[in-house]
Amino acid sequence: MAHRDAPLPRPLLAPAALLAGLLSCGDPPPPGGAPGDEADASQDPPASGDGAGDDDAPPADDDTSPTAGGGDGGEVGFGAPADGDTVTGRVDVRVAVPEGIDSVRLSVSGFDLGEVAVEAGEAYLAWDSGMVPDGEASLKAESPGAAPDEVAVLVENGDLVSYDVGTVENGPTGTPALVAPFQGGLLSLTFSVIGSSDTAYYLPVVRDPEGVDLVTADGNPWDDPNPALPAHSPSTAMLPNTPRISLAEGRWTVWPANDGAEGEATLRAVVKRAWEEPEAGELDLALYFVEGGRIGVASAATDSDFLGYLEAMGEILGQAGIALGERTALSMEDPEGLVVSDYGEVDRLLARTTDRGRVLNLVFVDRFDGDLEGVAGVTGGLPGPPLLHGTRYSGVVVALDPSWSWDDLAIAGAHEIGHFLGLFHTSDADGERPDPLDDTPECGSDGCSASESDNLMYPTLTGSSKLSPDQAWVMLRHPLVRLVPSPAPPPAAGRNAAPTGSGRPPRCSLRPR
After folding, report:
1. Closest Cα to residue 329, out of 289, 358, 364, 367?
2. Cα-Cα-Cα-Cα dihedral of 45, 487, 479, 238, to 10°?
3. Maximum CA extent, the chain
4. Closest by CA position to 266, among listed 157, 356, 181, 174
5. What is residue 126's three-state secondary structure?
6. Nearest CA to 484 among 128, 150, 80, 159?
7. Contacts of 433 (CB under 8 A, 6+ apart)
8. DSSP 3-state assignment of 312?
9. Averaged over 49-54, what is the pLDDT?
C-alpha cells in the first residue's frame, strides 16, 4: 500500500543492517548492582575519599574538620593547580604533604571534597571542576598537625564539560565504571565507548543513580527507556533523547557491551549544562570539499545555488531554534573520494576530518555509486560522537548530485544532521520501530497517510521538512549545539556532593526504489 499521495524519486531508507547482527552484545548485569561494583572499585576515577559523593559530608569549617593553622608538622602545599590558574573539565589536584601526615581534606569554595589518602608524600585528586559554577573558586587543603594551603583558580567550563572517565575492560558485558556527572544544571549526558577492535560492536550500557537501566544491550533497543544503537567504535549514547526521561544527579554506572571480544576501551563523558530550559542554539560547521568536485572551497563562498542550499538547511534547523553558526571551508585531497561506492569509503572520508573543536563535519562529494547508488547522504551516527574527529563516525557525508534539486538536497542534509544530533526516524514506513517521542507522527501497520509522513525524519523523502517541539528538545541537548545565550548558573548555587570520578553501524541513506 502506498504511504504517500504521490511517488517521489528519492526515498530515505535505513539499510537492513540497522538491526541485523547489532543485538549480539552480552546481557548487562541485572538491575540492582552491576558486577564488580564492589570488587572493581579500581575502575573509579581517582577517588576523593570517604566524603566524596556524600551530601552529608561535613564542610571544611565543621567541628569535625581539621584545625586550620595546624600544629608544628610543617605545611601542606599545592603542587597543582597553581594560584591564578584557569581550569576546565577534570583537573589534577596535587598536594605535597609533610612526613607523618597520612590524609588531607580538600574543599572548593565551601564544597567538601572529602579526605584524600597520602602516598609517597602526595595527596592526589582528579577534581571535576564542573561541580561548581564558572568564576573564581578557592581550593583549600587542610590536615591536622600541618598548616593549610589555599589557591584561587578561575573556572571556565561554559555549558560543556568533556573528560575521559578512564580505561575499562571489554568482554561479554564489559567492566563497569562509576561516573558522577557534574552537579547542578545537568541538561544531557553523552557517553562514547572508544575501542580498538574493528569487529566488535560497542554500546555504552547506562544505569542511572536510582538503579534504572536506561540503555541496555538486552534485546530491541527501541524497548529501552533511552534507545541507543550499537555500532563500531566509537559507539555513542546520548541521554536523554526523549522528554519522557529526567536525569538524576549522582553516581551513574556505565560499561561497554559488545559481541564478546576481549580488550580495552576508553569511556568518554560529555556533560552539557543549563540552568533553565534552552530555547535556541548555534551549530558550527566544518565544510570539507573533496578537490575537483562540483563545488570547491573557492566557489563555495560565491556560488548562489550552494549558498541557497545552506540557507535552506538553516531554515529547516531553525524550527528547532538552531541557527547555523560559523562555517569553515576546508579542502580535502582525495582523488577517489568524489564518487563514493560503499560504507568503507564513507568511513575513510570521515576518518580524514581533523580536530577543529566543537563543530559538525560535513564532507561534500559529487555522488554515491555502487552499493550506495542514488544515496544523497550518510550520517556518521545516531547520535554522532561529539568532539571526536578523525573517526569513521565523525560527521556526515552528503552528495551534491546534480540529479537532485537543491531543495531536496537541503532536506536530505538536514535529515542526516538531525540523526547526528540524536533524532531517529519517526517510524518505519510499516509502523515498526517508532521513535521515543510523543509528538511525532507514527505510521500504522497498513502504511502511512500523508499526515503520518509529514516530518523531516520520516524514512522516505516526502518533501516535508517539519520538526516537532520534542525533536527540537532533543537536538538542543546534543553537545555540538552551542546554547544561545550562553547559560549562566544561578547567583547562589546550593551545596552539592563532590563528583568522583563487521556488520554496518547505524546508517541512514537516500536511495531510489
Report:
1. 289
2. 70
3. 87
4. 174
5. strand
6. 159
7. 222, 424, 425, 427
8. helix
9. 33
CA atoms of 397 and 326, how far apart (whole Å): 19
The three-state secondary structure class of 503 is: coil
Count Cα neighbours of 238 within 13 Å in the Cβ-side half-sphere. Answer: 26
DSSP 180: -
Using CA atoms, how far apart are residues 351 and 345, in angstroms rounded to an integer? Answer: 10
- Give the tens place of pLDDT for each residue, 123-151: 998 887 876 777 888 999 999 888 999 99
pLDDT at residue 511, rounded to an integer: 38
- Amino acid type, 136: E
Whether residue 378 contacts residue 397, with contact meaning beta carbons closer than 8 Å, is answered with: yes
**Residue 205 corresponds to which amino acid?**
V
The β-bridge partners of 264 are: 169
How are the residues of the chain apportioned to helix, strand and coil, as percentages rounded to the nearest 5? 15, 30, 55
Residue that has been written with the C-alpha cell 500500500 in this structure: 1
Which H/E stretch holds residue 186? strand 186-195
Q: Tell me, rounded to whole angstroms, the distance of Cα 491 from its chain centroid.
A: 28
Position 450 scores a pLDDT of: 66
| H or E segment and range at residue 347 | helix 343-350
Q: HSE (CB half, 13 Å, CA atoms) of 337?
A: 23
- Identify the bridge partners of residue 417 per DSSP, sorted by sequence position: none
Bridge-based pairing of strands 235-239 and 339-340 is: unpaired
CA gap 45, 220 in Å, rounded: 31
Which of 165-169, 253-257, 281-285 is most confident? 281-285
DSSP code string of 367-404: EE-GGGTT--EEES-TTPPTT--SSTTSSEEEE--TTS
Count of CB atoms situated within 10 Å of the CB of 23: 16
The count of other CB atoms within 10 Å of the CB of residue 491 is 6
Q: What per-residue string of b and e applies to 85-110 under the rule 16 or more CB within 10 Å gives b?
A: eebbbbbebebbbbeebebbbbbbbe
Q: Which residues contact 39 (CB under 8 A, 6 or more apart)?
A: none
Residue 182 φ then ψ, to 5°: -60, 140
Instruction: List, in order, residues 6 or more apart from 355 with CB less than 8 Å away.
Output: 389, 390
Residue with grid cell 563514493, as numbered in its chain: 340
Return the exposure string of 222-236: e unless at least 16 CB atoms fall within 10 Å of the residue's CB, then b.
Answer: eebbbbbbbbbbbbb
Q: How confident is the model at residue 47 (pLDDT cuts 50, 70, 90)?
A: very low
Residue 5, class by beta-carbon neighbours within 10 Å (0-12 exposed, 13-18 middle, 19+ buried)? exposed
**What is the C-alpha to C-alpha distance for residues 507 and 11, in angstroms, rounded to an integer?**
14
Amino acid at 219: G
User: Cell numbers 579542502 label which residue?
Assistant: 331
Q: For 468-509, what is each residue's pLDDT tens digit?
A: 999 999 999 999 999 988 766 665 433 332 222 223 334 454
Residue written as grid cell 568482554: 171
